[in-house]
Amino acid sequence: MSSKRYKKLPKNTREITSESIEKLLPIIKKNCTTKFDEGIDLSFQINNKQKKNEINLRTVINMPGGTGKKVKVAVVCEEPKQKDAMNAGADTVGGDELIEKIKGGYLDFEKLICTPSMMVKLSKLGKVLGPKGLMPNPKLGTVTDNVEKSVKDSKSGQVEIRNDKDGNIGVSIGKKSFSDENLIKNFNAIIETLEKEKMNTTIKGDLIKSLFITSSMGVSYKLKLNKNI
């Protein structure tokens, strides 16, 4: 049964003509009638079913407007780099002992960074870390010798985007409390990243088939892009 709050929200928004993000943000925020700071979320469907192969996108984006989230970061590295990781704001830092701790079930972190030389040992925990999306990956900048930069990026507003088997991508561009300017900055950063990713694929035609925007407890609206991707 729908709540009184939800019943007051607009209906059949998917039938409304798509609009630009600049026009939709004030409407989306107006629909944020809960007591908490709702997230502003995007839902993409990409053209991942190709004749020769299936397209799988996975990359990270540094959000210029921030994310409004605190991310717990763990770092596995050699002792000389551990101080750099701690100074950069890592929540948990260690070497072999941290690997053993993770092996024993410790997973109190949302992002794991590892140096290349320690990755040989950490890779043995693939069955533990892989299914949870926590295995470090060079493409995502989480296998690196520059642990200081990787920690700072993770803490300052970095998000990962990847599509599922049906070509769907869900990503937040911030919170209701964010200024429209910062939400638009984050949106543009995502679009620019997807443009670059498309250039590295064999996709024929548009990468994005459809795009919707909504708040955590609101309704979704079709979003119009200023250019074809």
Question: Gist?
Answer:
This protein has about 230 residues and is α/β, with parallel strands linked by helices. Helices cover about 30% and strands about 20% of the residues. The strands form 3 sheets. A 4-stranded antiparallel beta sheet has the order 7-1-8-9, covered by helices on one side.
Which terms would index this structure?
3-stranded parallel beta sheet, alpha/beta, 8 helices, 2 domains, 229 residues, Ribulose 1,5 Bisphosphate Carboxylase/Oxygenase, 4-stranded antiparallel beta sheet, Rossmann fold
Please provide a written account of the structure.
The chain starts with a helix and ends in a 7-residue tail after the last strand. It has 8 helices and 9 strands. It has 2 domains: 14-57 and 163-222, Ribulose 1,5 Bisphosphate Carboxylase/Oxygenase, CATH 3.30.190.20; 73-155, Rossmann fold (3-Layer(aba) Sandwich), CATH 3.40.50. The longest helix is centred in the last third of the chain and has 20 residues, at 180-199. It is of the alpha/beta class. The model has no long low-confidence stretch (mean pLDDT 91). The strands form 3 sheets. A 4-stranded antiparallel β-sheet has the order 7-1-8-9, covered by helices on one side. Helices cover 32% and strands 21% of the residues.
